[in-house]
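Task: sequence in, structure out. Protein: Trigger factor.
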Amino acid sequence: MQVTETSTEGLKRELKIVITASELAEKLDAYLEDLKGRAQIRGFRPGKVPKAHLKKLYGKSAMAEIVNTVIGETSNKALEERSEKAAMQPQIKLSDEDAEKILSGDLDLAYDLSYEIVPEFELAPVDGIAIERPVVEVADSEVEERLTQIAEGARSYVAREEGAAAQNGDRLTISYLGKIDGEPFEGGADDRAAIFLGQGRFIPGFEEQLIGLKVGDKKVIEVTFPEDYQAKHLAGKPATFDIEVFEVAAPGELKLDDDWAKTLGMDSLDALKDIVKQQIESQNGGQTRQKVKRQLLDALDAQYSFELPATLVEQEFNAIWGQVEAEMKAAGKTFEDEDTTEEKARADYRKIAERRVRLGLVLSKFGEREKVQVNEQELQRALIERARQFPGQEKAVFDFYRRDANALASLQAPVFEEKVVDVLLGLIKVTDKTVTKEELFKDDEEPAV
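Result:
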């Protein structure tokens, strides 16, 4: 194998790799020798097929297989000998015009290998990093509120006496037809829908205008869609709804006691309270983890500035931008609705892509230094969690990831990252800070990375 560097620019590398025809011929000879002992061809005894005959029958197909194997082996070997790590799968360019001669054994195998290397940088000390871990104490009132929500979901309703007017808290069964400028609009109609007065699940002003209605009543109500309504073609527009009432039902008694807890499979109300408190603590803990991780990543990002592989940045940007476009299309929004332009949005999201790539490289290097590994059990848990996202298709998901090494690596990457974060949190100063629930769940001003 002969390797010649043909171009170097920043992180970009281009190599010319040549494997002589004689080297390929030796590999073909060994291939045919092995095939000779296994081939079963009519007219020849096992193991007695002349090699020249095998070459005539299988020479080109065998050489094609050899060439593919050799390209894979030599490209990897070239990077190893140069002590370089490719940021992404290297690109291989082989002349189509030469392919026939190479397969016939009349020409050396020569191909171009282009790639970007992972940049070299020194890891900065982390012992000077100090972050605050926001924690929330779960109050008894929050547990009671969550219990009430659970009970509300299973509350029974009893039809009111004939002629009774609907009150706040009642459940109405109605049919409605929404119109804008006198014309029905998509998604604005339902038949015998359950409306819970006072829960604020509908457009502001909708539920309030149903109070006082009786079974059999028909009414036209007027509302205005909020300016920030998710369906932009309806946002801010006035609308009317034709209403017909079929039932008015009063809420049954809400009693939080041991008997009610037993209907949910618990031994007692106290046992249910413990479970609910644990669930709230788990939810808070997940948010605390995200806040802590964000602070850590911000601190790390401030420590590093080095050239990034353009291919990695472009790949990350395309993934982010594709998600942005899909979300905006689903919401019916434009960049103008977000007080920006596509050009500015692209620039902002490219910065996010660069940050993610930079931090990914930093975390990867820390992981190598600390010898962080993702074991089979952890990878299996990640695969199971992924399969759960596709109910009824679990087997197909398992088969897909087991067949595709790159897809499986995409599951391994976030597990590896979280383990590296755990290691780093053990190396820096972390102090707890009690905050309110609102503070804990307040969105960061910038998109999380």
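The radius of gyration is 33 Å.
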